[in-house]
Structure formats: C-alpha cells, structure tokens
C-alpha cells in the first residue's frame, strides 16, 4: 500500500543518548557541522528553511534563518539582545533530527565576500553544494568547488528547482564531473523531466517517493512512498526512463562509496525542489547516516589533536556585537576537541594571554542536556573578545595551535581617507577594528604620522561595507580614493624582504603587525619577481617555476 507522510529514517544508534552524554566521542558522533554553499539565487535560504522545518529547530533564533528572517534579526538585534542574550542565528543554525545535532554555518552569498566564506568553510566538516538545475554550473559554483578542494572538504551536490524546466539529468552529472573532477554518484533520481517533477526514485531500495502537490510548499510535502510495481502504474514512462537513466549513471560512476566521498573524489548527488520542501528528507537522511562527524583536527605541525584531549578550538569569524556604539566584538570559535564549559580557564595560544569564557554564548544541544556545554563541531561565541583575532587558537590545558587562516589575495586597492579631522582617532580605531574582524584587509603606506591606510579588497563591495561601518559605528565618515594601479599583493618573506623588493622596483606597504607586503601592477610583474627572487615569497626556485 501507499505509506503517506512517511517520517524520514531515524538512526537507532543514537537513540539512547542519556547513557553516555558526557562522553566526547559519543557527543562528536552525534554532530554534523556543515555549510550550504551556492551561486546566489540557487535556493540556499529556501533549503535552509526547509531543512529546519523537517528537523526540529533547537533555538528559537534559528527559526528565522531565511532571507526574511535575516532582515528581521538585523533590525531586532537590540531587542533580541535584551530578551535572550546574543543570538548567533546568523552565524550558526542549530537543529536536531534523529538524535543528531546539526550545526549549519552560514556563508555570505556574494562573491565579493569569498574570504569570509573560506573562513567559515575551514570550520565545517562537509559542504552541501546547491545547484540551480536550470542553470547548471555557475561561476560561484565552480569557485566554491575549488575552495572545497583546497580545504579537502567532502561535498554533497543537490540539484535544486527540479520543478522548473531545465537541463537533462545525465548532462548535469557530466557537467559536474567535467568542472570539478569529482565523480557524481546519484543517491536518488528525479522521476519526470525538469519542469515536470513527479517524484524521486531511490536506487538503493528501488522505491518511488511521489511528490504530492496538494500541500507542497505550505508545509512538509506529503510524500507517498510506493513499490516499483505501484510506481510503474503511477508514473508510467517517466518511471521507466528515470530507472534507465539512473542505472546508466550508476553503471558509469558506481554506487556511493564513503571513502571516495570523504576523500573528495566523488560527490553524492541528490535532486530536490526546496521551495516545495521536496527532496529535503533524503538530504537530511544523508547527513545523518553518511556525512562525517567531527574528527580529530591537525595542528600546525600536522599532529591530530585527539577529540578527547583538553578543550580547543579556533576563531573562524569575528562580528560586531549588537550594540555598535560599544564596539564590542564577538569571536566565533569552532570546537575541535574536548568539552567547553562556561567559566573554564582558557588561553589564547597566539598571544599567550588568558581568555575569559564567562561571556560566552552557545546553545545547549537539547532541553535535557546540561546547559552551557559544547562539544566538538559546536560553535561558541565569545563576547568582549577584544584579545581574539581571526585564526587564533583558544585552548584549555595542554597548548595547541591550529593552522592560521590564510589571507586571500586582494585584487582591489584604494587609499582610505577620513573626512572629519576631529574624528581622526575614531577613524584609526575603526580601521583597525574592521581589519581585525576580517571585513577588509588594511595595508599601511609609510610610517608614524605620515602613515596612510589602504583598503585591500578581494571584492569591491567590501569597500562599501567598510565605509558604511566606519560612518555608522565609529561616526568617522570616510571615502576611498581612486583605485591604485595594482592588481595583486603578496606578503613578503626572506632575509631582507624590503630591500630586496625595493631593489626589484616593487612597492612595499605594511600590515598592521609590521609584515611587509609587495604590491604588483600585473601578473607579469609578479611572475617575474617570483622567478628572480623566490625567497621573497617564501618559496624555492623550483616552486617558482
Ligand atoms: P539564495 O538564498 O541561494 O540566494 O536563494 P533563495 O533561497 O532566496 O531562492 C532564490 C529564488 O529561488 C527564490 O525566488 C526562491 O523562491 C526560488 N526557489 C528556491 N528553491 C526553489 C525550487 O525548488 N523551485 C523553484 N521553482 N524555485 C525555487 P524569488 O522569486 O527570488 O523569491 P520568492 O518569490 O520566492 O520570495
């Protein structure tokens, strides 16, 4: 018969949490820390909402994660602070399903903020790549796939908007493989061509889940699960075609193989229509059953920090607090090992200074979990975190340092000038604040009082954001001058980098910590300098070639 409204699979392994709630391995196994990445408009907000709807949203704040919700939470910022302390809804959405706790970290959609996205991706264990089926691989899709490759992140690909006319399934898979080098392995297959989405074929069980249109979109889509025989009657030719195409894909690319997925050589593929909440349950099931749980992370020396060692984590994001007038900063830390408890004694590895864990914000896993505890994979927000910088490692007990996050190579350079001389101190403070937060890179030309700051951006929208914040938060209106004639910047290394660079007619500026940075007018000049003076870039002659 037809099973109407079947509940997605729930893992029994996780069903008795009370027995070992205090075991870090058990808690880590229950967690999935991931991000949804996509070219803008592919449906990231829609999918986020649909996932939260299918699962149980743990925090109130998380319910309003979608586009509209984000607007609301921005304007209600102050109210929310008063009501329930700092909300980290725009950083991490937390929800639970099948006794698994999900931490869904938000990434900015626009390409100009790719550096922020990169930093968030260092804090997750896998990524969901959402693709608009009618558009296929878009520029951001490709860039994000490349970032995942660099970070060694497993990626599951979801073809969204299958309810819209678009490309053919097999073509889409080819495109993925060609563009990313990852082997696309279908976990389900759409029945009905793009634009006429009937349901999903599950090659593992052989069953058909029919999309019921009666209440699609309004709430959870009613899913009718049918046997192959019933499906043949219900969907006819579309069913046969789906099975044939899926068989072709499976015979070419194989079945799901966990090792291939985790190594980034294969990307499992799912089809969905997030706006109709359809195809979301299989994605959740995938995350529960097959996505990686937090594991030991390598320190700077490459040694894995065991999950059950002392608490440790790293700052992957800084954000202004809710009261801009106070310039309070929030530092978001991804927990890598151990148990975090409010009030514990912590140290910032890079400065050696103690870090207060008194003013932290983290959500308890569930109502019955003891509050104020976080485990590997979780995100803890430190407020009043003026001593913390992006990339810093925070730890209890035995010291550890996780790899620092690299600077993205900026491509746009502009001098920034304060407009109000009486606000010059606020201007300087604002600039260094924005730099610490990672809003924009700041380079300085010259020394002392004649020092002038240069904004270095990966994307030009960063200029607008930085200027807007200088004005609003620091009451220090500023402008950027015309674009400087450089296309790239590189940190300089070696025995006497400034002299070497100047001898090669390279313009040298400095980061706030004094590190010299070379500015290059074009790729040719950069390439030439790399060949002539590889030591400037901390590379060998061979690497330069
Ligand atoms: P983003 O966060 O990735 O930028 O995308 P978002 O979720 O905002 O979705 C972008 C547009 O795509 C929205 O339409 C959304 O409704 C639509 N969309 C998302 N998933 C699906 C789907 O499965 N099928 C179809 N047909 N459309 C989908 P919009 O017109 O921009 O907004 P709205 O009219 O829905 O408010």
TrEMBL record:
Keywords: Cytoplasm, GTP-binding, Nucleotide-binding, Protein biosynthesis
Annotated localization: Cytoplasm
Gene Ontology molecular function, alphabetical: GTP binding; GTPase activity; translation release factor activity, codon nonspecific
Annotated segments matching region Disordered: 346-375
Domain Tr-type G: 29-297
Biased composition (Polar residues): 346-358
One Gene Ontology cellular component: cytosol
Keyword Phosphoprotein belongs to the record: no
The family this protein is said to belong to: Belongs to the TRAFAC class translation factor GTPase superfamily. Classic translation factor GTPase family. PrfC subfamily.
Protein name: Peptide chain release factor 3
Source organism of the structure: Paeniglutamicibacter gangotriensis Lz1y
């Amino acid at each position: 018969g037809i099973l109407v409204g079947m509940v997605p699979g729930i893992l029994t392994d996780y069903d008795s949490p009370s027995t070992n709630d205090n075991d870090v391995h058990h808690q880590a196994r229950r967690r999935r820390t991931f991000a949804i990445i996509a070219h803008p408009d592919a449906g990231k907000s829609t999918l986020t909402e649909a996932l939260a709807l299918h699962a149980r949203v743990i925090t109130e704040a998380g319910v309003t994660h979608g586009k509209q919700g984000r607007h609301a939470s921005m304007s209600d910022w102050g109210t929310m602070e008063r009501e329930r302390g700092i909300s980290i809804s725009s950083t991490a959405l937390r929800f639970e399903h099948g006794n698994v706790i999900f931490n869904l970290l938000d990434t900015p959609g626009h390409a100009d903020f790719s550096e922020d996205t990169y930093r968030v991706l260092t804090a997750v264990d896998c990524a969901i790549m959402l693709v608009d089926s009618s558009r296929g691989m878009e520029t951001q899709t490709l860039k994000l796939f490349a970032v995942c490759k660099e970070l060694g992140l497993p990626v599951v690909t979801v073809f969204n908007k299958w309810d819209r006319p678009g490309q053919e399934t097999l073509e889409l898979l080819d495109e993925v493989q060609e563009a990313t080098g990852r082997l696309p392995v279908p976990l389900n297959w759409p029945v009905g061509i793009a634009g006429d989405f009937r349901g999903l074929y599950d090659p593992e069980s052989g069953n058909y889940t029919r999309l019921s249109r009666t209440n699609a979109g309004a709430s959870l889509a009613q899913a009718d699960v049918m046997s192959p025989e019933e499906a043949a009657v219900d969907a006819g030719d579309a069913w046969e075609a789906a099975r044939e195409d899926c068989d072709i894909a499976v015979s070419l690319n194989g079945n799901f193989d966990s090792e291939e997925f985790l190594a980034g050589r294969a990307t499992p593929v799912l089809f969905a229509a997030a706006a109709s909440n359809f195809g979301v349950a299989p994605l959740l099931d995938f995350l529960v059953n097959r996505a990686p749980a937090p594991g030991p992370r390598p320190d700077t020396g490459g040694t894995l920090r065991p999950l059950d060692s002392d608490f440790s984590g790293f700052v992957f994001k800084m954000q202004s607090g809710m009261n801009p007038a106070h310039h309070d900063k929030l530092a978001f830390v991804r927990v890598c090992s151990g148990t975090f408890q409010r009030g514990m004694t912590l140290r910032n590895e890079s400065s050696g200074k103690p870090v207060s864990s008194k003013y932290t914000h983290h959500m308890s896993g569930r109502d019955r979990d003891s509050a104020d505890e976080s485990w590997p994979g979780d995100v803890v927000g430190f407020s009043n975190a003026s001593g913390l910088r992006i990339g810093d490692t925070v730890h209890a007990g035995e010291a550890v340092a996780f790899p620092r996050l690299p600077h993205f190579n900026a491509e746009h350079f502009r001098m920034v000038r304060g407009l109000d001389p009486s606000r010059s101190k606020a201007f300087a403070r604002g600039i260094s604040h924005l730099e610490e937060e990672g809003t924009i890179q700041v380079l300085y030309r010259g020394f002392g009082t004649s020092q002038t700051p240069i904004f270095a951006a990966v994307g030009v929208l960063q200029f607008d954001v930085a200027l807007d914040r200088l004005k609003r938060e620091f009451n220090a209106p500023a402008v950027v001058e015309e674009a400087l004639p450089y296309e790239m910047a590189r940190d300089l290394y070696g025995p006497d980098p400034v002299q070497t660079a100047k001898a090669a007619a390279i313009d040298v500026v400095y980061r706030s910590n004094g590190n010299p940075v070379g500015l290059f007018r074009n790729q040719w000049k950069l390439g030439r300098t790399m060949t002539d003076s590889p030591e400037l870039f901390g590379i060998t002659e061979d690497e330069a070639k």
